[in-house]
């Protein structure tokens, strides 16, 4: 017997532990917590509402009983005669006349008491009523109280019988509260059962609503689990709704699109960088293999060294630009330093003048005496050197003109040339990294100069626009905030 009891206690303890574990696991889910909060809120509201209803009904039923007692007391007092402190009954009272019959039909009990508290007459279903305190009989105020009797709970009204303002007796009117208590009991059971049912329905409804509202979140979770750096093509594609979850889903899809584009650009950048780095290295390796294949003359060795130097310079320029892009992608320079743009452009034009003269290109600058802007001077030098160098490089004859215009909030620098120009289909892509039009593939460029210039302009809060006609020249316009 002891072993069986021990086994039962052990099973109960295990069941409680398992139930607690399952409950804690369930509480981790938002929909379960939402359902419990909803049920708890509904339960609190129902308890408050039920208490108010119960109290109001109880007060109403008690007030109805008191009203009946008052009416019966008035009728009974009207049927009494008082002479010299002696209470006598009117003729026909309490026989079954209209008044007494009406009182009995209401289920009331009437007892007439003299000044000593002795019963003069009584009638009604409750023949034995608790005697009042003598002080109450001699009082002149009407009192109402609820008492417990053998026949059940009673509501008793004690009304004084007055003669010349003095109490010479009293009338007790009693009504059973059994009906009131039965009604209140049924109301309490109804409120408890209804409250419990509504709480359960609210919990189930809250769980269902939470599950429906969180369904897109579950779909986001499943989609996020499928996403990897190699495949960012998955989307939620939920129906467009103007609620919080709909906006979250749309934002999630937009974020995936941006990440996908970013990864695509990163992969393309890596592939292009690898290709561009491989090209000079392959050329250098080929030159070395050719030179080492057999003995060469000093002139051939000098030519090979010149070729190696050219490829090394190209490789250095490419690596320098790649490092600049990587550094500026990670951290921007201070763009708030005061810069005199007119002096900066004059220095750049002076430094590139020999290159223009070497190609027979006229290089000119038109700028006001003062042109202050805010930015990073080194970055602005790189920007305008790239643009002016490009203009000279692709202008075989003619001129390259640098001009500036100052507006209220902007400074515009135009670099125009009379070079080969750019075809319309290439214009949308010329600021992409490593993008070069076919005519430029034979040059020593890396395809990063314009991308770097565009990055610098955007970092300063400005932009670069381009207009070009093949065979007529190109105009790059840099816009910077004052």
CATH architecture identity of the largest domain: 2-Layer Sandwich
What is the CATH topology classification name of the largest domain? Beta-Lactamase
Major β-sheet strand ordering: 4-3-7-6-5
The structure class reads: alpha+beta
What Rg do the Cα atoms give?
A: 52 Å
Number of helices: 10
Question: Which range best describes the helical content: under 10%, 10-25%, 25-40%, 40-55%, 55-70% or over 70%?
Answer: 55-70%
The general outline is: elongated
CATH homologous superfamily placement of the largest domain: PAS domain
The overall number of domains is: 3
Largest sheet: number of strands, sense, barrel closure: 5 strands, antiparallel
Mean pLDDT: 79
Low-confidence stretches: 438-443
Summarize the structure.
By secondary structure, this protein is an alpha+beta fold.
Description:
This protein has 482 residues and is α+β, with helices and mostly antiparallel strands. The chain has 3 domains: 26-226, 2-Layer Sandwich (Beta-Lactamase), CATH 3.30.450; 244-316 and 319-324, Helix Hairpins (Orthogonal Bundle); 333-481, Heat Shock Protein 90. Helices cover 55% and strands 20% of the residues. The chain has 10 helices and 14 strands. The chain has helices spanning 2-27, 30-78, 98-105, 134-137, 178-226, 244-293, 298-330, 341-359, 377-393, 449-459, and strands at 80-83, 86-89, 108-114, 119-123, 143-149, 152-163, 166-176, 337-340, 361-366, 372-375, 398-406, 410-417, 463-469, 473-481. Strands 4-3-7-6-5 form a 5-stranded antiparallel β-sheet. Strand 6 (152-163) and strand 7 (166-176) form a beta hairpin. Helix 2 runs antiparallel to helix 5 (178-226), helix 5 packs parallel to helix 6 (244-293) and helix 8 (341-359) packs parallel to helix 9 (377-393). The longest helix has 50 residues, at 244-293. The chain is elongated. The protein starts with a helix and ends with a strand.
């Amino acid at each position: 017997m002891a072993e069986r009891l021990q086994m039962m206690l052990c099973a109960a303890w295990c069941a409680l532990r398992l139930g607690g574990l399952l409950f804690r696991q369930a509480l981790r889910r938002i929909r379960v917590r939402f359902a419990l909060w909803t049920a708890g809120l509904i339960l609190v509201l129902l308890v408050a509402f039920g208490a108010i209803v119960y109290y109001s009904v109880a007060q109403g039923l008690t007030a109805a009983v008191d009203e009946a007692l008052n009416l019966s007391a008035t009728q009974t007092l009207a049927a009494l005669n008082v002479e010299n402190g002696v209470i006598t009954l009117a003729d026909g009272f309490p026989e079954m006349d209209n008044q007494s019959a009406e009182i009995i039909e209401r289920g009331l009990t009437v007892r007439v008491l003299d000044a000593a508290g002795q019963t003069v007459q009584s009638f009604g279903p409750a023949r034995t009523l608790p005697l009042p305190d003598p002080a109450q009989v001699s009082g002149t105020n009407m009192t109402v109280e609820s008492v417990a009797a053998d026949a059940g709970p009673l509501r008793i009204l004690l009304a004084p019988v007055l003669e010349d303002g003095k109490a010479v007796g009293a009338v007790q009117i009693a009504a059973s509260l059994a009906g009131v208590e039965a009604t209140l009991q049924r109301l309490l059971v109804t409120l408890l059962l209804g409250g419990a049912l509504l709480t359960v329905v609210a919990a189930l409804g809250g769980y269902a609503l939470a599950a429906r509202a969180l369904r897109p979140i579950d779909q986001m979770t499943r989609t996020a689990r499928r996403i990897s750096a190699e495949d960012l093509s998955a989307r939620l594609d939920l129906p467009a709704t103007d609620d919080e979850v709909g906006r979250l889903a749309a934002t999630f899809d937009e974020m995936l699109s941006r990440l996908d584009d970013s990864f695509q650009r990163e992969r393309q950048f890596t592939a292009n960088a690898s290709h561009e780095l491989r090209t000079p290295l392959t050329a250098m390796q080929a030159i070395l293999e050719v030179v080492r294949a057999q003995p060469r003359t000093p002139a051939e060795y000098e030519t090979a060294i010149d070729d190696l130097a050219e490829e090394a310079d190209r490789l250095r320029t490419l690596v320098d630009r790649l490092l600049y892009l990587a550094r500026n992608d990670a951290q921007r320079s201070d763009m708030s330093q005061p810069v005199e743009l007119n002096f900066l452009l004059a220095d750049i034009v002076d430094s590139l003048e020999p290159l223009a003269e070497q190609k027979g290109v006229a290089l000119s600058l038109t700028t006001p005496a003062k042109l202050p802007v805010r930015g990073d001077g080194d970055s602005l030098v790189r920007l305008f050197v790239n643009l002016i160098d490009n203009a000279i490089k692709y202008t075989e004859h003619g001129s390259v003109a640098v001009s500036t215009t100052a507006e209220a909030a902007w400074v515009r620098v135009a670099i125009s040339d009379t070079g080969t120009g750019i075809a319309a289909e290439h214009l949308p892509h010329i600021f992409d990294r490593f993008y070069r039009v076919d005519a430029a593939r034979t040059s020593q460029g890396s395809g990063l100069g314009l991308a770097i210039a565009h990055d610098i302009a955007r970092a300063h809060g400005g932009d670069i626009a381009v207009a070009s006609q093949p065979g007529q020249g190109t105009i790059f316009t840099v816009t910077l905030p004052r």
